């Protein structure tokens, strides 16, 4: 005797379980904005209880919605990106949306391919941290997308909304902290100025030096096109390989993978932190907390960035008609977490 296959729950089953009409269930699951919060919660709880999975193909043909949001990040292994995406997903799921994540490996051409894929009806909106804000084909793909876009830590307000930390203030505070300890040869490692973090950090770093009357030395700036550790290792080894008096006495390294490369170079050169070299890193990751010594870092509420990005996306998806408010940028403040990797420079 064959087992009878389990019947998949339907919209009618969800309606009976929630005690509402099938039409109400349909309005909630298709993302309509004229349902109450209580009704949305009631229906979504019933759908989860029954393990109801909408027929996305039929649903998208009827409503022109896939109930899916695409996200582009440079490196899914980066713990900061992981926290951001977890917060985005936490906000989208109660509204019935799923999150699809793609990794562009800091390559503009991959951004172009992903944006073109998303634009072919695969998603309802895109949350993007693109590799290069100045890349012509990326800009063309974004302008042709015809979907709501929220940029994570990028500055393209002519195309979509944006959210990100106050990198300028973070770099400024880090530089001032080292100047206050007596450092004058302070190096900065940061991503390329073709993206917002690089531009803002360079500006904050240079402003702090200028305010202190310290001449800007381009040789102390390692502006890297990619955020990988190998490139950072090579750049740090060159910079720190000079004799004492010529090499920097402190390094501000504002990239998660860059910091790993810098730490490898410091170990290769047998430099003592903080006796011979003071370090400031980025984020509240295991690398900065568990290093010996623990590393002073610039951090921000990355989960707040994710929540804001999701909320901005949902607001755009609920808009009706042609009247749309102007794009906006929400900025999360940074803070310095003082640990044990900074000290006054050695005499002489």
Topology:
Layout: H1 11-18, H2 22-29, H3 37-50, H4 56-63, E1 68-73, H5 79-92, E2 98-103, H6 108-122, E3 125-128, H7 136-143, E4 149-152, E5 161-165, H8 167-180, E6 186-191, H9 196-211, E7 221-224, H10 229-240, E8 250-253, H11 256-268, E9 278-282, H12 286-290, E10 296-300, H13 302-317, E11 329-332, E12 334-337
Parallel strand pairs: 1-2, 1-3, 3-4, 4-5, 5-11, 6-7, 6-8, 8-9, 9-10
Antiparallel strand pairs: 10-12
Helix pairs in contact: 1-2, 1-3, 2-3, 5-13, 6-7, 8-9, 10-11
Question: Can you put this structure into words, describing what you see?
Answer:
It is a single chain. The protein is α/β, with parallel strands linked by helices and 348 residues long. It folds into three domains: 11-62, lambda repressor-like DNA-binding domains (434 Repressor (Amino-terminal Domain), Orthogonal Bundle), CATH 1.10.260.40; 63-165 and 302-332, Response regulator (Rossmann fold, 3-Layer(aba) Sandwich), CATH 3.40.50.2300; 167-300, Response regulator (Rossmann fold, 3-Layer(aba) Sandwich), CATH 3.40.50. The protein contains 13 helices and twelve strands. The protein has helices spanning 11-18, 22-29, 37-50, 56-63, 79-92, 108-122, 136-143, 167-180, 196-211, 229-240, 256-268, 286-290, 302-317, and strands at residues 68-73, 98-103, 125-128, 149-152, 161-165, 186-191, 221-224, 250-253, 278-282, 296-300, 329-332, 334-337. The protein has a six-stranded parallel beta sheet with strand order 2-1-3-4-5-11, sandwiched between helices. The protein has a six-stranded mixed beta sheet with strand order 7-6-8-9-10-12, sandwiched between helices. Helix 1 packs across helix 3 and helix 6 (108-122) runs parallel beside helix 7 (136-143). The radius of gyration is 24 Å and the shape is elongated. The chain starts with 10 loop residues before the first helix and ends in an 11-residue tail after the last strand. The mean pLDDT is 88.
